[in-house]
Amino acid sequence: MITLSEEQTSRLLAFNDCFVEHPALTTIIEDFERLRFNRTLGGEQQSMLITGDTGSGKTQLINHYSKRFFSQQRRNVLTKPILVSRIPSKLTLEHTIIQLLMDLGQFGTEYRTGRSHELGLTESLVRCLQLCETELIIINEFQELIEFKTAQYRQLIANRLKYITEETKIPIVLVGMPWAELIAEEPQWASRLICRRQIPYFKLSEGPEDFVRFLKGLAIRMPFDLPPKLEEKHTTLALFAACRGEVRKLKHLLNEAVKMALFDGAKTLTKEHLANAYQLFYPSLLNPFLQTINDLKFAEVASYSRYDPNAISVDEALIATRFTDQMSLTQLLKK
């Protein structure tokens, strides 16, 4: 079996985990910094809502930002400047608070005190957040609070999170799928979610510049001494045709193509590697890397996924992302 050297493996893993900013992400990172600074001024803290469809890069953004901050041992307490948590799959008020304590690294100690009821857990969380010198709380998968939950239940958890941010003076960032926006309909959050951001898919109809810059950022992070020219017109268009503007889909394709290039001992990534990776993932589809520009067909997002709280059944409640019909480049740019 062909294997990679330790250095090649390390560089491949680094590329697989790499983070490349684009304007929407840059704005959100600046928002995080602003929220943390505003906290030092005291007073009522703003909260923030970030939404994005599947594969838009929400979790990658959170992981990238949180990795900037290191925990330190101070006065027998491990600090946690950025607390990243999520809405638990077993959604109760108690489990939500326990999840926050666990992600803070404090649940075991607090739970053994015997004060495991909801109010006691909340008091423990408030105290631990202050001891751990937490500056920002980011809660991912917030759409879980919306899906198939009664308004009373949503209000119960929303009220408790509001209480936590009021007691600790720590801003909270809620992150989730597009329908997480429904939380803004809760009266206690409507005025607090002053900052609301969306992480969109790339759209060629709105101009290729951001997509091209994103590809360049990925290229220079690839494990080759000679970065590939992903910004060449055919390569750029073929990559967009392959991913329809979705970052996760693009990254999976490039990760596989880069791995193939390393196994080949290639000096850089070529269209052949891209074509082979596409063939591996989508053997029944036309391969955009083997087509001319005139033959390429494109689709981009028309509407993002959403949740219908009034749907009769679970299957009808979640409405999938909708993409445009396949069209030529000329047709797409005329939109």
Task: Name a few traits of the molecule.
alpha/beta; 14 helices; 45% helix; Rossmann fold; 335 residues; five-stranded parallel sheet; two-stranded antiparallel ribbon; DNA transposition protein, AAA+ family ATPase; TniB
Give an overview of the whole structure.
With 335 residues, the protein is of the alpha/beta class. The protein has two domains: 1-19 and 202-335, no CATH class; 23-199, Rossmann fold (3-Layer(aba) Sandwich), CATH 3.40.50. Helix content is 45%, strand content 11%. The protein has 14 helices and eleven strands. The protein has helices spanning 6-16, 23-40, 58-66, 93-104, 107-111, 118-131, 151-168, 187-190, 209-219, 233-243, 247-264, 271-281, 314-317, 329-333, and strands at residues 48-52, 73-74, 77-78, 82-86, 136-140, 172-176, 195-199, 301-303, 306-307, 318-319, 322-323. A five-stranded parallel sheet has the order 4-5-6-1-7, with helices on both faces. Helix 1 (6-16) packs antiparallel against helix 11, helix 6 packs parallel to helix 7 and helix 10 (233-243) crosses helix 11. The longest helix is centred in the N-terminal third of the chain and has 18 residues, at 23-40. The N and C termini lie far apart (49 Å). Mean pLDDT is 91; it is low at 109-116.
